[in-house]
Amino acid sequence: MYDAPCALVVDDxxxxxxxxxxxxxxxxWRVYEAVGAHDxxxxxxxxxxxxxxxDLRMRGGNGIDLVRQLRRIGSxxxxxxxxxxxxxxxxxxxxxxxxxxxxxxxxxxxxxxFLRERRAEPQIQPPLHATAQRWDxxxxxxxxxxxxxxxxxxxxxxxxxxxECAREGDADAMAAAAAQxxxxxxQAGRPEVEWVCRAIAADAGRGxxxxxxxxxxxxxxxxxxxxx
Length: 228
Fold this sequence. Notes:
There is one protein chain. It contains nine helices and seven strands. It is an alpha/beta fold. The protein folds into two domains: 6-124, 3-Layer(aba) Sandwich (Rossmann fold); 147-221. Strands 2-1-3-6-7 form a five-stranded parallel beta sheet, with helices on both faces. It has a two-stranded antiparallel sheet with strand order 4-5. Helix 2 runs parallel beside helix 3, helix 6 (140-167) runs antiparallel to helix 7 (171-187) and helix 8 packs antiparallel against helix 9. The protein is elongated.
């Protein structure tokens, strides 16, 4: 069965954390957030994340020291630095510990490229016409378009996973997968999908695997990815 990989996003700026967290959530990751290095160490010890995305410079610590500490305690995660001004010097510092560095605020195309190049699961397809589209940090409309494209590319895989849980009668896994898709649907502006997913999660939380709700979800989501 497919298990969503775990990502830890570390930044003392809430807006920056939220941007990265939303992109990863829409791409199928379980995402946890940490305000700084101390919180990140505590969270990593509990979560054993597959990916850690961290600001390079934070109050009370920095990303390079955090990566070194996580590696010392045996973390197997991939790492990615974000920096407001990723100068050649900053990139060289990041390269010295073997970690790539992207500019803040993160461009979804660059994040997608990072994940695909390292073959992190789940595989993420770039939005249609990505090379022609410009990321405008001042435009909420452009941001929402990117999020919807990313959501749409992963939706068939999410539905297939929920269906697999239903076929196996795994109510706990079905509840978790439906709740995760409900959150992503809310972010992507799909309230009708969110509502059905929350109903599925509620039923599964009581141990009920509702195939009727599943078929309702497939019809509303407009895909045949799990039909039959």
